[in-house]
DNA sequence: TGACAAGCTGAGTCTCCACTCACTATTCTC
DNA sequence: GAGAATAGTGAGTGGAGACTCAGCTTGTCA
């Protein structure tokens, strides 16, 4: 893994054009990887962003760095989303939203799956676990989730169901029924 | 997709050495893809099988054909395994065994996920659905699974949980607790 | 056992893709 | 607005991996 990518560290601030391009590249990469999976070429990202390929590599020295940067944004968004939920149904809502996203976008899941393997993002992943943990706590307090349920299996289910939704191309009905089974299991009865 | 691979069609029977090599290639491929995922090189498969790479391509004109052949064997085994189970716990046992396999081997899941995407194996996948459907029917008859549960969500959960186990590297305890939640959901209370 | 078909071999081709770098263009600073 | 620093460009490099094929080997069958 390269050292910190520009705009992450505290080095000299980026030039205006560089900031613009960096944002364009991130957006393009997110879209491209969402459509084609993490196997999509860096060239395609550059084309979509409207920059030369060299520019992509200037900002993200390796393809992995680019993936990591996207992953970080995605996770940060999820954490934010989780942070806004709560109460008895927060955890369930979070599950549903994640799955709905996963069914359409390869990136979320393709990347989620890589966390901890090729990409190291312990902090951000930790934050997500923390946020989900809080949702779990609130749900258990409200009595909508059995107290025997622990965080690791909730995370495991979250990842599983995203993977499944992605690969299986679930429609809305199947999503609902599948989650229904899991929610039943979480409730305990 | 290429036409039928040798030994699937009814053309002239394979020569003895060809049969031997075909079997070796399939075994090697299964092992290699299990370890390294479907991205492993055909060269590695040839090396492990102790044949030249040309031989692999003689038997399986494209890498996809090779993957399809392995997939077919894997699914056939799963169907056979499902066929031997039954009663109130058959479905649960099947789930547990699949997940236990998935946690160790990339192939099962990596390939399961591709069914219907790159690889076309409608018959065999259909057979698996049929076999799982029978397990579901028996479990519902025995009262261990709620009657509201339908086959599609069972398949969806099966695939999800395999994906999750694969990517997350679950240990035995996590497997058990995660499946516990799902089993609870299937039971209905 | 000889002859022919079937199968095996592996160096070589082709394509794709991550990544580089010498050069040019833009922005910033004073 | 000029000079310096920063950023952009895109043809080029290197490597990996799927797939081919001309020549050699082996099994089969009369």
Automatic annotation (TrEMBL), chains A, B:
It comes from the Bacteria. It holds the Pfam family TetR_C_43. Residues 19-78 form the HTH tetR-type domain. Residues 41-60 bind DNA. Keywords: DNA-binding, Transcription, Transcription regulation. The keyword DNA-binding applies. Coiled coil: none annotated. Gene3D superfamilies: Tetracycline Repressor, domain 2 (1.10.357.10). PANTHER family: HTH-TYPE TRANSCRIPTIONAL REGULATOR BETI, HTH-TYPE TRANSCRIPTIONAL REGULATOR RUTR. This is TetR family transcriptional regulator. It comes from Actinoplanes palleronii. The lineage of its organism: Bacteria, Bacillati, Actinomycetota, Actinomycetes, Micromonosporales.
